[in-house]
Amino acid sequence: MANTEEPKPETSETSSEEPKPETSGTSSEDQKPKDSSVESAPSHEQPVDEKPEPGKVHFNTKSSKVGAQVGGNVNNSTFGLTGEEFLRGTQQNAQNVTSAIDSTLEKFTRCITEVTQAAVRAASYERSSFTAQPPGKPIEKHPINISEFALPSDRDDYARQFEQLRDEEKLFVIILYLFPDIPWTDFWLVYEQAITTLPVKSKPKPSTNAKTRPNEVIIKVVQGEVSQDQSQTVAEDPDEEKDEVSPLHRARSRSDDYWTKWTHAEISLTTYEYPEGKQTKQTINFREQAQDVIKTHIRTTQRQWLMSLLPVLKEMAGLPSISTDLRKMIAEAVATIADIDFGYVTREVLDTWSCSDEAYIRVAAGYTLQKIFILHQNDAEVIRLLDFWADPGKRTGGYYWQQCWTAAFTYHLIGIHKFDLVKSGLTSLGHLPGNLENFSHDLWEEIIRISEQYQTLEEVSKSDQEIIQNRIAILEVLKEAGEEIPDAIMYTLVMLALNNRSLEVIMLMKEWINTQPDPAKHRIRNFIIFGVLKDTSFSNFYHKKSETAAGNEHDFLTLFQVDKDFRKYLADILTYLLPLDPDLRQGLFSMLQTWTIEMAKLDLDIQSIKKLLVNIYRRSSQTQRKHILTAMKHWTKHKHQSVQVLGYETIQKLETGDYSLPEKPGGRSGKGPIVFGRN
Fold first, then answer.
1. Which of 116-125, 385-394, 413-422, 612-621 is predicted least confidently?
2. 599 within 8 A of 609, measured Cβ to Cβ
3. Tell me, what DSSP letter sits at residue 416?
4. How confident is the model at residue 274 (pLDDT cuts 50, 70, 90)?
5. Residue 333 belongs to what H/E stretch?
6. Checking phi first, is residue 344 left (phi over 0); if not, alpha (psi -120 to 50) or beta?
7. Average pLDDT, the chain
8. Long-range contacts of 623-632 (CB under 8 A, 24+ apart)
9. By mean pLDDT, which of 71-85, 198-212, 312-326, 476-490 is the weakest?
10. Cα 306 off chain centre by
11. Which helix (H) or strand (E) holds 326?
């Protein structure tokens, strides 16, 4: 049997006590075994029993293969050696071969480890598809079509990509569609709420071609317990086969690069400007090159996914722990879903939100309706719904004051764009506080009337007790409504005035007092009007100082100075308010003093205030004229010089002018003729 060429054994580990045996091996020139005379090895000392080194492979010295490798398949006596000497030489050769094998195995193991680690790192960036193979056959790797994962070229291309995603990945895409440019941390709050609420499948939909979906490659190095053939049959993420691994855990454990790559998204730094400074957040959105294709696909083919998120968003908006910005984004996401079925979204979400006792939830309903209006898909439905909420007279089964509040808040969001569409609803709301006040008065009258029929409370009949308890419960609700609704109306009118709708707001309030001129029945509404004028003017001064409203020809102060009709409308309103209440009258003159001081600081024309006072004087009765002159005399003693000067000038103007008393219905109007039927 021919000997194969063996590598030259290493001698570094040979014991110093043992001489090296001389062996006749094959040379590079002569590879055939020598069967003639062989040089005999010198005699050796007695062999020393060696213990096998731990960690190394030791050969069986009784094997005939060792002798064949050293000197051919011959008898030991051929070498002229004793049995013990031959055995010692054989053991030394075995140790040398073992050392070489160990070194080779160590290098091979290190190489395998490095290759495996590289493959694991590549697993998060590249997906592969495998088919199950019979045991013993090599794995067949199916090359991935790069176009499947590149930016989609058209809707059909992305439709194929979308169908290959897991449910939790589809959910990621759907949420990103509803929340464009959402902060990265807020996105995961929404995602966690959705994936823990919806019945998201833990396993992917099986493919029809027996191939696994193009997914991330997870290479698990198994050290001995799993054979290569067994590992070849693993084609999916091992986590998916474990019931205890939730979709949320699997989703959160993946890297940001994983999500941004396979959903065609990108994370950017977005800077928000505030009066106090700037704020920078990491936001996520689809890549600009893929936005249109992805959004069109979801909007037209994934309605079921969108509708399934509606209960999730409804519940999440009611969480007091989330931020105001996130709640607004949730409301706008509901508006996007409303394009599918406005009526269904109204019944399932908006009606509930609008009747909530929590103001921040009612505000969410307003932001949803604003977004729907802007999208121009159901803007007419939005106006009809708000008008229905704002006018309790349109209801037959009672109403919720919270819906009136929601309508009032929402009108300012829509009125900024189209004031004429909200004018009717604001008119109805203007009458509502007076109606609530009158209704409360009637209930108290009924309670008193029932109580006067009995001498003591113990004598009140059971039926009358139920009536009184019912009326008291209604009064408690009306009290809350009487506090909340006026604030909402006032806020809406102020916000409209500060957004270039000052003239429309003044004309609306003038219409309020013209259609229902009885001041006694509308005490709350009168304070609303005063509050709107005060808050609007003071806010306008603040913006003027900060130069945020510089050059705006529609703001309150600019119109007050340059528009003669605007001052006339304002004079009509103030003339209506002056005789109502001494405290209110004092508040009005104090407000005009503040206007004078602030306009002087801003180098604005304070003569417009004198013109306003003259207009009020002309429209006032004799009693109110005395109040105006008395107030002007107090102005002359004011510590601020601009107020003193204006007080003197106004008194001089009023005393030297000839002003007729205002006309009265059915009677003398001072120096004027008798006029009938004039309001």
1. 116-125
2. yes
3. T
4. confident
5. helix 324-338
6. alpha
7. 76
8. 623/579, 624/575, 624/578, 624/579, 625/654, 627/578, 627/585, 628/578, 628/654, 629/654, 631/589
9. 71-85
10. 16
11. helix 324-338
Q: Is the pLDDT of residue 41 over 70?
A: no
Q: Is 613 helix (H, G, I), strand (E, B) or coil?
A: helix
Helix (H) or strand (E) holding 99, with range, is: helix 83-123
Instruction: Give the separation between CA 379 and CA 371, rounded to whole angstroms.
Output: 9
pLDDT tens per residue across span 611-657: 999 999 999 999 999 999 999 999 999 999 999 999 999 999 998 88
Cβ-Cβ contacts under 8 Å for 439 (sequence gap 6 or more): 478
Mean pLDDT calculated for residue range 345-365: 95
Q: Using only C-alpha atoms, what is the Rg of the chain?
A: 46
Kindly tell me the burial class for residue 583, based on how many C-beta atoms sit within 10 Å of its own C-beta (0-12, 13-18, 19 or more): exposed
Whose structure tokens read 């941390």? 185
Helix (H) or strand (E) segment spanning residue 409? helix 401-415
Q: Is 7 helix (H, G, I), strand (E, B) or coil?
A: coil
Distance (Å, whole) CA 536 – CA 505: 10
Distance of CA 251 to the CA centre of its chain: 18
Question: How far, in whole angstroms, is CA 121 from its chain's centroid?
Answer: 32
Neighbours of 284 (CB within 10 A): 25
| AA identity, residue 281 | K
Least Cα distance to 501 among 566, 429, 576, 550 occurs for 566
Token pair of 319 as six digits: 């969480």
Picking from 546, 497, 544, the residue whose alpha carbon sits closest to that of residue 275 is 546
- Give me the sheet containing 265-274, strands edge to edge: 182-183, 277-286, 265-274
For residue 12, is pLDDT > 80?
no
Residue closest to 328 by CA, chosen among 190, 197, 495, 174: 190
Q: For tokens 């293969």, name the residue.
A: 65
Question: pTM for the whole thing?
Answer: 0.69
Query: Would you state the pLDDT for residue 91?
Result: 66
> Cα(first)–Cα(last) distance of the chain, in Å?
133
CB 654 within 8 A of CB 614: yes
Among candidates 139, 58, 142, 141, which has minimal Cα distance to 92? 58
Tell me the C-alpha distance between 281 and 261, whole Å.
20
CA distances from 183 to 260, 265, 404 (A): 14, 13, 33
- For residue 35, what pLDDT is reported? 44
CB 318 within 8 A of CB 310: no
Enclosing H/E stretch for 215 = strand 215-216
Greatest alpha-carbon pair distance for the chain in Å reads: 159
With residue 163 as reference, give the H or E element that holds it.
helix 155-163
| Contact between residue 555 and residue 549 where contact means Cβ atoms under 8 Å apart | yes
